[in-house]
Recover the amino acids of this structure.
């Protein structure tokens, strides 16, 4: 059933979920965002050029993402999965889990279709836990008295 859906119909179907969806038209160098994808990042307008989207990726991550997507397209990979920090329209960065699959349209063009979930809260919790572990380790290593941990619970 899903094999016969047009990209627009597939977008509409996936709008019922919680993830933002997007479609990269490789030859056209355009990325089409779903309404939820636009809402996640706070932008209006669903069509973006590849350069516009790359400009939204955190500067520290941009060249790596550019290389990764280029390799995925060039190597004819079937799937694509990364974590990206992208600029929200309000000026702060959010962390997105980005996963996609390459599809071939009836006219022979290859596209990359994907889902994007905001994982900022998970990333922030992971960073807080890592900081807490570093502080605890520094305390134990630098404490002049002995430290004894009775259980690991």
């Amino acid at each position: 059933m899903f094999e016969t859906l047009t990209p627009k119909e597939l977008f509409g179907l996936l709008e019922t979920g919680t993830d933002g969806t997007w479609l990269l038209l490789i030859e056209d160098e355009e990325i089409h965002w779903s309404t939820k994808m636009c809402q996640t990042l706070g932008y209006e307008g669903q069509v973006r050029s590849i350069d516009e989207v790359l400009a939204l990726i955190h500067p520290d991550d941009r060249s790596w993402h550019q290389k990764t997507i280029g390799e995925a397209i060039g190597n004819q990979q079937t799937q694509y999965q990364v974590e990206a920090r992208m600029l929200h329209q309000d000026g702060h960065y959010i962390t997105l889990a980005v996963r996609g699959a390459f599809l071939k349209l009836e006219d022979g063009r290859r596209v990359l279709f994907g889902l994007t979930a905001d994982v900022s809260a998970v990333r922030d919790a992971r960073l807080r836990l890592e900081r807490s572990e570093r502080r605890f380790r520094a305390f134990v290593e630098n404490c002049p008295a002995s430290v004894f941990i009775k259980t690991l619970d």
About this structure: Residues 120-142 form the longest helix (23 residues).
